[in-house]
Amino acid sequence: MKTNPHPSTCVDAEIFAADVELEGPPEVEFNPGIASRIPAKGSAGGALVRNTSGQVLFVVPMYKPFLDIPGGIADANESPKAACQREVVEEIGPDIAVGRLLVVDWIPRNGVWRDSHQFVFDGGVLTDEQASAARTHDDELTGVRFLSLDEAAPRIHPSLHRRLELAVNAAESGTTIYAEFGHAL
């Protein structure tokens, strides 16, 4: 029997293994070489975490000049939600549960980064006590900041600003939004 190919999927491991089994044997190429010609597309999962004042939790990476939200790039054979949960635990600890999907946003290639799908999940609202205790647990980060989206605007990419505005609206309205480069479609 096939087993879960990646231990950090958010689907129950037994259900996942059964679903993989139902798919049948690994697919082989009917026309050799076609799979290698299909473009690779990255994906990442991030968490919209807010405090009771509505400010968003941003992490301060040491490897780039912009703020970001907790989360990260999905590993091979890892779901965006599992990547988000893994990175949230690595970056700010296990106290934040990654909830429902708020936004799926396609972003175009940017320099060395290929086009990708950015998934934003609801990380909930922290109590005042939880928010004041928020710290980073990752050597790649130098800190965390709670900022309004307007305060964060000069320190984040405009597309992330647009994506987070959509995520806040989705969290408040109970909807899920599809976007392209931060614009809802």
Question: What do these coordinates show?
Answer:
- The chain has helices at 13-23, 34-37, 80-92, 128-133, 149-152, 158-173, and strands spanning 42-51, 56-61, 71-73, 101-107, 116-126, 141-147, 177-180, 183-184.
- It has 185 residues and is an alpha/beta fold.
- It has a six-stranded mixed sheet with strand order 3-1-5-4-7-8, with helices on both faces.
- It starts with 12 loop residues before the first helix and ends with a strand.
- Residues 1-7 have low confidence and may be disordered.
What is the strand and helix layout of this fold?
Layout: H1 13-23, H2 34-37, E1 42-51, E2 56-61, E3 71-73, H3 80-92, E4 101-107, E5 116-126, H4 128-133, E6 141-147, H5 149-152, H6 158-173, E7 177-180, E8 183-184
Parallel strand pairs: 1-5, 4-7
Antiparallel strand pairs: 1-3, 2-6, 4-5, 7-8
Pfam families: NUDIX
Domain Nudix hydrolase: 40-169
Cofactor: Mg(2+)
Question: What is the CATH first-level class name of the largest domain?
Answer: Alpha Beta
Say which CATH homologous superfamily of the largest domain is assigned.
Nucleoside Triphosphate Pyrophosphohydrolase
How far is the N terminus from the C terminus? 42 Å
The spatial strand order of the largest sheet comes to: 3-1-5-4-7-8
The biggest sheet, with number of strands, parallel, antiparallel or mixed sense and barrel status, is: 6 strands, mixed
Helical stretch count?
Answer: 6
CATH names the topology of the largest domain as Nucleoside Triphosphate Pyrophosphohydrolase
Report the principal-axis shape.
globular
The secondary-structure class comes to: alpha/beta
- Considering DSSP H and I runs of 4 or more, what fraction of the residues is helical? 25-40%
Average residue pLDDT: 91
The secondary-structure element order is HHEEEHEEHEHHEE
- Proportion of strand residues: 25-35%
What is the name of the CATH architecture of the largest domain?
Alpha-Beta Complex
